[in-house]
Amino acid sequence: MRVAVTGSAGGVGRVLCPALADAGFDVLGLDLSLSTTLRDDGRTEQRVIDLLDRVAVFDALAGIDAVVHMANHPNSYAARPPTRVYTDNVTTNTNVFEAALAHGCNKLVFFSSIQAQGSTRMIGDDPLGPSHIPYLPMDGNTPAYPTNYYGLSKVVGEQLLEMHCRLNPELAGVVVRLPYIGGEPGRPMERKLDEVRRRGWQKFFSADEGFAYIPPADVASLVLALLRGMTPGFDRVLAAVNDNQFSLPAERVAADYFAGVEVRQDLSGRFTLIDNAPITRRYGWEPTPVQRPAPVPG
Fold first, then answer.
1. Cα separation, 218 vs 76, whole angstroms
2. Residue ranges per domain, the chain?
């Protein structure tokens, strides 16, 4: 299977493309620049491309069986004015989806964001205010609630892919909402709330995202599971490791930051407010277990 990966020169792309090659896929990487990591690896064909160029995108995706579309502005601060984040992302997504369909591609994976669900209550806000998240743990069915142009562009991308799946019965389309991408597989991030406050980083941490994260290697394993298991129709998933950026028990995060929100599952023993169970049931994927120090006998 020939797979095109947009955003291949980015942090996830440099991990994902070799993982796809390891699994036997023929990989085409598309980005604004070439990756020296992928060049040295030698198994990913790379092409420099501006995905805003409709003609170039249609040319690049000829002969492609599946597309993993990651290339968007990565946050609401990535371009000025902020409306450009929205217009560029929507145009890019439109070009990629339409070109893929025009060439008979029947598998599309679109990287959305947890910010499609909203990102307003920052941990430095006083008072923090109530959460708009309707239930915990969050999953792929958590309602969209965009609060900036970036989140809105992701919601439109999700709806665009869902529309194409509705109009093209042979198309398998999966939206992957992702939280912060970082950390290392199997190791907790171990950030400290007091240090975040001391350094003035509160504005970068939205409580409504549950402080969730996922390492690039886990993103790669998730994409592999999706490509192997996706079937015609539309699906949307939300994925994270069983941890949060402060390594706090999920029960405490829920109590401190989601007062009044319906809790639908027992959170004891958990460190994430993201429910990975639907992905495990449908695609067989599980994140890398996070190894925690054994408690000291007291």
1. 24
2. 2-120+135-183+215-240+274-283
- What single string gives the DSSP state of each residue in 208-231? GGTT-EE-HHHHHHHHHHHHHH--
Neighbours of 143 (CB within 10 A): 11
Distance of CA 15 to the CA centre of its chain: 14
The overall average pLDDT reported for the chain is: 94
The share of the chain scoring above pLDDT 90, in percent, equals 85
Residue 8's DSSP bridge partners are: none
- Across residues 40-51, what is the average pLDDT? 97
HEC secondary structure over 228-286:
HHCCCEEEEEECCCCCCCCCCCHHHHHHHHCCCCEECCCCCCCCCCECCHHHHHHHCCC
CA distances from 19 to 217, 221, 222, 233, 284 (A): 9, 8, 11, 25, 17
Tell me the one-letter amino acid at 153: S
- Stated pTM of the model: 0.95
Tell me: the pLDDT tens digits for 196-235?
878 877 777 899 999 999 999 999 999 999 999 999 999 9
Taking residues 167-194, report their average pLDDT. Answer: 93
Q: Cα separation of 215 and 218, whole Å?
A: 5
Q: Could you give the residue numbers annotated as active site?
A: 150
Return the pLDDT at 297.
54
The residue whose two tokens read 């999953």 is 139
Which DSSP letter does residue 141 get?
T
The band of 48, judged by pLDDT with boundaries at 50, 70 and 90, is: very high
Domain 2-120+135-183+215-240+274-283 has CATH 3.40.50.720: yes
> b/e string for 159-170 if b means 16 or more Cβ within 10 A?
ebbbebbeeeee
